[in-house]
């Protein structure tokens, strides 16, 4: 086939040109005119006009990648928590104000439109949001990177609070169509399940399988202030047989579509939990579905410009975001060895050079394992390959270690205790040339505790890459008032080089800057206050201290420590209402995993405490407690810029990094936190005097655990704490159901609480008093807030991705010239 150059309209981005584009897209894309258009139609037409302006860059980036035969990074993640795209794309293209004006000239308020866009919530929390920040940073740096994942029809559930309880409703985010994606029906791969293996000649064949097609949907990922763009490719399941026609003709309509529905279930739903694997078999199918299509796709792309696998490892880096995509390893071995007939040793050598793996948790119960029997049934060939990898690995280690059988049992890919299971993290480590933790502390503990044997065997594999966040979304987009102020004082370059924020240090004593800084924060607080009044019918005073704990509800994150302090403070205010209290609004937001009973009870407790406190006339504005429902990226963008205080109070040694801590500090909130995860590095960067650090360190937590943690003693010795806990136990906050929170009491006091809430209570309460004292002095507070923003340079995802690119992936930015 000969190809001709396409001639198309070169789009510019004046207000006038945008206005015509929107009109064109309304007419020819949406099929409506200004009279019949609904607000959603305007959003769709405007989004298409923006997308049109990204496509030429996208084509150019792809063409240059092929021309320069670059090494590409494949970032594999079961989750991408993207949020909204419209404003992000406008800011990346630098056409935000023009678009606003163009829409205004058509009689449309852009701020109304942006609120109509649904979040793409294809993730649970920090892990998925990290993947989304990384896509933004890779594109901005010009790294040839592809995100690969699943196009879930239903993303993270929507959370409502009804009578104080979490109610989950499905998130059908595609209802109104998705203008940002391009369906690619010509890109489909067969994914097999079940069946059996046979040896034919030299090779193993996997036969008698059932199958489903994986179809690609591509989303453009624009880089900021560059024409480089990347691709997020998400797979959707398509049945190989649309309809069982003979069943249909017999009148058995249900059966006629059953098989289709069953196979397409694979990409139906995101599992609402990132720490334990639920719905096990379907979850395993999802993991395999996604990595199989991805490995087939990267082989196809490589083979477009190469005829042998000789340079495969020089052209491809595969990154595993946690263990969920680990089946990519046996799948790529299978494709290379069984299908492309590459010798086993050569295939394994390339895999070891191509793969890298990020660990996200130290909690042993959250490390993923799969039942050997289930794997044998669903993926028999992969299980054989895993056994073979294990046999070779253990043989090598046995020879080196003088056959230390205890150690061999510990590091084996197969857990032989009880029901045999495959340890996915072990497979990831054995196949990867680099394994990283996500903060300095986490990386240290990882090699000291859960992966100690591996760190002795492969010391050169283990490394740290501290997480980061994209300043484009989390400052430029989320806080227009603060980013405009920063632009005015130090220019706009901080968006691409966050270390530029250090220049704000010179302004720390500039009274006019401090005043403007306080005013920016105040505007963000007012915006939030108005939204709370509209949507939750709660009124709060924007001049109160806004104290935020926003993150998934989990015992290790210790929302309970925060609630206990709220209760103690409530009792203190009631005892001395006339004292000079610093007015506070304590806000919580976060979802509880559907099956996590305790987390749901914690939400209930927050609701009951809030009902009591907010309606107590003795308390008034001195203390308010608010639970903001449906935490997700858009809620985070609204709420984080309004924070004065950031609660990062996990038990030391449990939070791998945290990224919420970074977003809040970047927005000028002061952190009250433990020395855990990235809090430690934030503390080094912004100065301990600008944070409120409290509580046991990770080493002290270990020591306390070894010595024997006795919470009942703490309960008995601290009268204020005892009263608060007794109120929880006896139904003071839940008179309609006095025993509702009895389990919380017993968990904290009698059952040895593994998160040691009471051990840190006294120090936490003292730190909260220090917070009040600082807040009473607005100048001191603002100086600390500015120091926080100024110190956040190193927490840009651009720094993080730079480290991955140089130290792990060995990829270079594309030459865009
Ligand atoms: C940043 C972010 C998280 C992670 O927050 P942590 O406090 O680090 O747990 C979770 N959910 C959303 C929507 C986020 O934006």
TrEMBL record:
SUPFAM superfamilies: UDP-Glycosyltransferase/glycogen phosphorylase (SSF53756). InterPro entries: Glycg_phsphrylas, Glyco_trans_35, Pyridoxal_P_attach_site. The keyword Nucleus does not apply. One of its GO terms (molecular function) is glycogen phosphorylase activity. One of its GO terms (biological process) is glycogen catabolic process. It is an enzyme of class 2 (transferase). Pfam families: Phosphorylase (PF00343). GO terms for cellular component: cytoplasm. The modification N6-(pyridoxal phosphate)lysine is found at residue 663. Its cofactor is pyridoxal 5'-phosphate. It comes from the Bacteria. Its EC number is 2.4.1.1. Keywords: Carbohydrate metabolism, Glycogen metabolism, Glycosyltransferase, Pyridoxal phosphate, Transferase. PROSITE patterns: PHOSPHORYLASE. It catalyses: [(1->4)-alpha-D-glucosyl](n) + phosphate = [(1->4)-alpha-D-glucosyl](n-1) + alpha-D-glucose 1-phosphate. Belongs to the glycogen phosphorylase family. Phosphorylase is an important allosteric enzyme in carbohydrate metabolism. Enzymes from different sources differ in their regulatory mechanisms and in their natural substrates. However, all known phosphorylases share catalytic and structural properties. PANTHER family: GLYCOGEN PHOSPHORYLASE, GLYCOGEN PHOSPHORYLASE, LIVER FORM. This is Alpha-1,4 glucan phosphorylase.
